[in-house]
């Protein structure tokens, strides 16, 4: 079965990400561009964190079991 891809815009402040990463919540719940809810581990965003937090549009790919396969930022 093929992987599914979701296009997800994110705007998470540095403070909010710190709370996610420190254990207050382990998952991010977001909506893709079609309004579907997408949940994935907050730790998967670690490579994209800046001093402003996490901002941008991301392509989230899941496997046939809806487990995160990859995440990458779309170019602006």
How does this structure look, described?
This protein is mainly beta and 76 residues long. It has one domain (4-73): OB fold (Dihydrolipoamide Acetyltransferase, E2P), CATH 2.40.50. Helix content is 14%, strand content 47%. It is built from 1 helix and 5 strands, in the order E-H-E-E-E-E. The chain has one helix spanning 14-24, and strands at 4-13, 27-31, 37-41, 53-62, 68-73. Strand 2 and strand 3 form a beta hairpin. The longest helix has 11 residues, at 14-24. It is globular and about 35 Å long.
Summary tags:
globular; 76 residues; 3-stranded antiparallel sheet; OB fold (Dihydrolipoamide Acetyltransferase, E2P); mainly beta; 47% strand
Explain the layout of strands and helices.
Layout lengths: L3 E10 H11 L2 E5 L5 E5 L11 E10 L5 E6 L3
Antiparallel strand pairs: 1-4, 2-3, 4-5
- Biggest beta-sheet profile: 3 strands, antiparallel
Number of helices: 1
- Total beta-strand segments: 5
The share of residues in helices is 10-25%
- The neighbouring-strand order within the major sheet is 1-4-5
Cα radius of gyration in angstroms:
12 Å
What string, H for helix and E for strand, traces the elements in order? EHEEEE
| Strand portion | over 45%
Count of domains: 1
Give the class-level CATH name: Mainly Beta
Query: Which structural category do the helix and sheet elements fall into?
Result: mainly beta
Any idea what the shape is?
A: globular
Distance between the termini: 30 Å
Oligomer type: single chain
Q: What is the second-level CATH architecture? A: Beta Barrel
- Average of pLDDT: 90
CATH topology: OB fold (Dihydrolipoamide Acetyltransferase, E2P)
The poorly predicted ranges are none
């Amino acid at each position: 079965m093929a992987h599914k891809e979701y296009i997800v815009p994110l705007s998470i402040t540095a403070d909010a990400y710190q709370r996610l990463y420190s254990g207050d919540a382990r998952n991010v719940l977001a909506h893709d561009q079609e309004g579907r809810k997408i949940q994935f581990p907050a730790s998967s965003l670690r490579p994209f964190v800046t001093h402003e937090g996490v901002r941008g549009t991301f392509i989230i790919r899941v496997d046939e079991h809806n487990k995160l396969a990859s995440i990458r930022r779309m170019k602006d």
